[in-house]
Amino acid sequence: MLPVGYTEVRYMERRYSVIKTEFNSGKSIKIYAEELGGNDFVSLNFYLTSQKEVLKPCEMPKHKVISFLNGFEPLEI
Which of these, 20, 24, 39, 48, has the minimum number of CB atoms within 10 Å of its CB? Predict the structure, then answer.
């Protein structure tokens, strides 16, 4: 539900900058979120193949990525 490009969101009462990039006609997605004024970040790649959807967190637990994706709230900037 994130638009391509830059967005700010709220997650667990903290603000994050999020950059979403799409490749391969939207079948490959990269998301990088960084807490504004903090140290937390979320990074992932998502692939839609003909057989399944594949979520690949970047150097973090899968549950952290899923929690972020299910829990953020977009902000108006």
Answer: 39
